[in-house]
Amino acid sequence: MELFLQSIANGLVQGGFFALFAVGLVLIFGVMGVVNFAHGELVMVGAFTIWLLHAQYGLGYIPAIAVAIVLVTVIGLVMERLLFRPTRADPLAGLICSIGILFILQVIAALIGGDGPSKQVPPPYQGTLVMFESLRIPYQRVFSLAISVAALVSLWFFLTRTRYGWALRAVALDREAAELQGINTNRISMVAIGVGTALAGLAGGLIAPLTNINPHMGHNVIVTAFIVTIVGGVGSLSGAVLAAILYAVFHTLITVYFGATIATISGLVLMVVVLIVKPTGLMGVRVSE
Amino acid sequence: MLLQVDDIHVHYGQVAAVKGISLEVDEADFVALIGSNGAGKSTTLRTISGLEHPSAGSIVFDGVAIDRMSADRIVRLGIAHVPEGRRVFKDLTVSENLRLGAFTRSDQQEIEDDLEKILTRFPRLRERKDQMARTMSGGEQQMVAIGRALMSKPRMLLLDEPSLGLAPLIVQEIARILIEINHSGVAVVLVEQNAELALELARHGYVLETGNIALEGEASGLMDNDHVRRAYLGI
């Protein structure tokens, strides 16, 4: 029972990360129609930045996270301006460009950090929060969960309470009708990819002290993000957040009791089952009328 | 002259949809474009609002050439377009839809006043303002689309088949609203397959056939024209 509760607590922390990068993927796909395969590498760049600046050069953890967010966001904005915008007419072209970026970022990371053993960042926050006598959550994880929740709440506020948030949702629903309201859809695309990649940078920054950092870590991230967005319902942000939390708890429990490989396989099976039983996902709505 | 469209040609790839259309709209005018499917009515509207660009010809609105301008900039000059099929933002609430219509404006207080006016003009929308647009009936969605267009404070309103798929009673209500809008000083350009309705409402009419203008004139004159009566009014 103790192990079970502990796993659920760890799963919730994990769910915060999953949600951060999954909603970014959903935002970019919704507004720009591009499946950004490089999203996992953006998280990797965020984590790598923490390793380089914080663990190697001694910059504070929080300033390093800020640099990671800015760096990843800039990469995202450049991708939109130089690759996705010129190829907007052809959705497949955007996807292929993103796969190219994926490899480029992996190679750059390997050149900077070396392709040797994975790197670790010592957790900047030491100590453990003890609840109900036996439930132990390291402060590093408490910090991550709190920041993840704060970021998701801010995103929700932005999307539902500000005119740029409404405009972003409008562009995702009907680009042409949005233009007819005077919305500059190119500018909204920049906002969407800016927010989506900033969240990926933040996720990388938060995950850095809790995981093994290497140039190929983006692979697990993107697989997780796809499972979460498909289970949640493609295009649904609230679905992605819900699925991220459920999947993270599920994944953690299976990992604890059966091992990591079985957990990943189970995740993919879960995705297939959802596609068969409810092809629109948990919160998905049908696309055609 | 508020709008002057001069001999525009519009292509979709290799296919010419509009082959030399000219038309004029005065300040506070009411103009109808009628014709059968594929005559080029929708394309003409889409070209005026900047969703398409002409391969030849010019469009001047209030002294400004707009034929190369993007749609979002044209809205700022005072042209609002209610597109075919209404195209409301279905997963946004009615009030979010209406507020997005005012996206180009920054006069907060006046936006609130205009929103209030529109909710008064469309009482059904007030009852449902916090509902998702997708839960509304076709007629109500058409009202959202028209209200959204009015929120940009246009000088000219383009409407593409607002009566399509609506019950006769709702069509009458929409017609009454269009007259009110026109009387408040907004020029209206109405594209309709329902030629009778369009010519009843409009002052001037253009009959489009295969990308060209076949006939034009006073709406009442077109109503009496033998060709129009046979081809479009079914009399």
Strand content of chain A: under 5%
- How much of the polypeptide of chain B forms β-strand, as a percent range? 25-35%
Q: Outline of chain B, from the CA principal axes? A: globular
Q: Give the fraction of residues assigned to helices of chain B.
A: 25-40%
Kindly report the CATH topology of chain B. Rossmann fold
Which features characterize this protein?
heterodimer; A: 289 residues; mainly alpha; two-stranded antiparallel sheet; 2 strands; globular; B: 235 residues; alpha/beta; Rossmann fold; six-stranded mixed β-sheet; four-stranded antiparallel β-sheet; 39% helix
Structure overview:
The complex is a heterodimer of chains A (289) and B (235). Helices cover 74% and strands 3% of the residues of chain A. By secondary structure, chain A is mostly helical. Chain A has a two-stranded antiparallel sheet with strand order 1-2. In chain A, a hairpin with a 3-residue loop joins strand 1 and strand 2. Chain B has 235 residues and is of the alpha/beta class. In chain B, helix 3 runs parallel beside helix 6. The interface between A and B is medium-sized, with 18 and 27 residues.
Secondary structure blueprint with pairings:
The complex is a heterodimer of chains A (289) and B (235).
Chain A: H1 2-32, H2 39-56, H3 61-84, H4 91-113, E1 128-131, E2 135-138, H5 139-161, H6 163-173, H7 175-179, H8 185-207, H9 218-232, H10 237-258, H11 260-277
Chain B: E1 3-12, E2 15-25, E3 30-34, H1 41-48, E4 56-61, E5 64-65, H2 71-77, E6 79-82, H3 94-101, H4 108-121, H5 123-127, H6 138-150, E7 156-160, H7 168-183, E8 187-192, H8 195-201, E9 204-209, E10 212-218, H9 219-224, H10 226-233
Parallel strand pairs in B: 3-8, 3-9, 6-7, 7-8
Antiparallel strand pairs in B: 1-2, 1-4, 4-5, 9-10
Summary of the model, kept short:
The complex is a heterodimer of chains A (289) and B (235). With 289 residues, chain A is mainly alpha-helical.
